[in-house]
Amino acid sequence: MSREVSYVRILQSVAQMQVSIASMLEAKAAEAEKSKAWICSHLTAQQFATHQDQVQQPLEVHDGLIELIEAITRMEQSLGKHLQIVIGEQENQGGGGMGEFSELLGGGNK
C-alpha cells in the first residue's frame, strides 16, 4: 500500500470519527434539553432543604458538562495534531497538495 493510499485511509477514518463525535454531541444535546425541561418544571425551591443544596445540584450537573466538553476538546486537539503530522510529512516529501487548507492547519509559511 502506498503512502498516499495510507494517508487517504487515515483521513477517511478521521472523517468517520468526526461523524461519530457529531452524533454523540447531538444525542448529548437532546439529553440536555430533556433534562432542562424536567428540571425547570419539577425542581423548585421547596424540593431542597437548604439554599446550599439548591445551588449544589446544578453545580454538579455543570461540572459534568464541563468535563465532557474538556474531554472532547482534548480528543479534537489530538486529532488535529495527528493530521498536522500527516500533512507535514506529505508537504516535506514535495506532495504539498493541500493548498490553502495547509494554512488552516498551521502549515502555511506566510
How many alpha or pi helices? Answer: 3
Give the percentage of residues in beta strands.
under 5%
Q: List unreliable stretches of 5+ residues.
A: 96-102
The largest β sheet comes out as: none
Distance between the termini: 34 Å
Shape type: elongated
What is the element string, with H for helices and E for strands?
HHH
Radius of gyration: 22 Å
Helix content: over 70%
Q: What is the averaged pLDDT score?
A: 78
Alpha-beta content class:
mainly alpha
Number of strands: 0
Tell me what you see in this structure:
This protein is mostly helical and 110 residues long. It is 78% helix and 0% strand. The protein has 3 helices and no strands. The chain has helices at residues 3-42, 51-92, 101-104. Helix 1 runs antiparallel to helix 2 (51-92).
Keywords:
110 residues, mainly alpha, 3 helices, elongated
Structure summary:
This protein is an all-alpha fold and 110 residues long. The protein has helices at residues 3-42, 51-92, 101-104. Helix 1 (3-42) runs antiparallel to helix 2.
